[in-house]
Amino acid sequence: MEKKICIFEIQQALRSISLAYDRLPLINPDGIFGSKTKEAVRIFQNDEELLPTGEVDFKTWKRLMQAGKEAFLALSEPKNIIPIKNADLPLEQGDENNYVQVLQNMLNLALKSSDGYEVLETDGSFGKETFAATRLWQRICRIEESGIANKTTWNLLVDYHEVFGK
Q: Second label for 17, Cα 20 to 30 Å away, from 54, 74, 126, 140?
């Protein structure tokens, strides 16, 4: 069973690298070291200037786990989402996406000097903390305190970001 878990971790790292950088064939982690996994390992080794055997030795494992972690983090970051005015993206509790992460970053910038404000974790998940921060921003702007990042709320944040965010 332990070997299957290791193979699964290898495949997860290969998949993250493929999704983030599109340099490897896409692997579906299944815990089986088949021909597709071996080929992806060989390509990875070649790209990393390792001996391209298709087998995972310690050096390959170490580099693969590091590259997989970096790829996963790259996938977690917003993808060049520029806060633009008039975006009709009502964001609300329960939403999970890169736009929520941008909203969280903009709220952190806009509210950082507010008394008692707790900096939001920019995780892309619109939970109760993001809801409360959105309501605080709406209160400061003297607009309806719905906690929903509607067009008006978004535009006011974009205006603030354009002036103070650079």
A: 126
Domain-located, residue 93: no
Domain co-membership, 104 together with 160? yes
* Separation CA 55–CA 78 (nearest Å): 34
Contact status, residue 155 vs residue 89, Cβ threshold 8 Å? no
Tell me the Cα Rg of the chain.
21
Token look-up 């890169």 returns 98
* 82 domain residue, yes or no: no
Number of domains in the chain: 2
Say how far apart CA 150 and CA 86 lie, in whole Å.
Answer: 10
How many Å apart are CA 67 and CA 56, to the nearest integer?
14
User: How far are the Cα atoms of 46, 78, 104, 149 from residue 96, in angstroms, in the given order?
Assistant: 36, 12, 11, 13
For residue 163, the one-letter residue type is V
Domain residues for the domain of 118 are 98-164
141-164 pLDDT, tens digit each: 999 999 999 999 999 998 888 877
CA-based diameter of the chain, in Å? 64
